[in-house]
């Protein structure tokens, strides 16, 4: 069985064909690398410059004045330790709620098959087509006066946690993975007398670690990088997230120190991706085929 490639093997076999192919491939890879890593390099290097060099036009490629003290100054001036702890608190709280409620929703849609389950899933996926900014106003009004309980959740963690639970994309990922689990395995457990919750806890969740890891990463990163919603919900400076806190304290701070603070804010999510990139890809493709 022949393998189909972008360039025919006959063309590669011509004199200079492989050399031209490698040169073009190398140029494309270098171009895409510069496009994606260029802004990150500018962010990290500008945090090492002094204030005048940081705003120079055109910008310098290599810092002429190496001042790593900008990072320690940003940590102290902007109280990044408090903002970091606040963000971790909100992120892992959202993670706990998403793992419990999104797993339950995906499991019920996949294995319990409730009445109108397909319609519910379709409406959930339809919300992915709606821009997030369109929902800001109704969500804000709901948080100010929660129906039934009549509570104002402004400046509380619930204002961050509850809206993050309704994540249709994560529910879809979990459902797709649960669909790939053989029905015979669950039927055997049911014959042995296991209830649906016991099947979920003892069988489904242990073999769903790859997709649970992906959902966990998405949940934490989603809260970490969010800016507009925490800015509306957390006006109290002592309760703000990392991104919102840096924005609130940016007045009067030198540009190089501000860029250093932004670099520190971006570093945790980059580290998470570099460490878990294989787990992310394997988890996203784990439910692609039924075994």
Q: How does this model look, in words?
A:
By secondary structure, the protein is mainly α. It contains 15 helices and no strands.
Distance between the termini: 24 Å
Q: Which strand-content bin applies to the residues?
A: under 5%
Q: Major sheet, described briefly?
A: none
Number of strands: 0
Topology:
Blueprint: H1 9-12, H2 17-46, H3 51-54, H4 69-77, H5 80-112, H6 117-126, H7 136-144, H8 158-165, H9 168-179, H10 183-191, H11 196-204, H12 209-225, H13 228-233, H14 242-248, H15 255-285
Helix pairs in contact: 2-15, 4-15, 5-8, 5-9, 5-12, 5-14, 9-12, 10-11, 12-15
Write a concise synopsis of the structure shown:
With 291 residues, the chain is an all-alpha fold. The chain has helices at residues 9-12, 17-46, 51-54, 69-77, 80-112, 117-126, 136-144, 158-165, 168-179, 183-191, 196-204, 209-225, 228-233, 242-248, 255-285. The chain is 68% helix and 0% strand.
Key descriptive features of the protein:
single chain; mainly alpha; flat
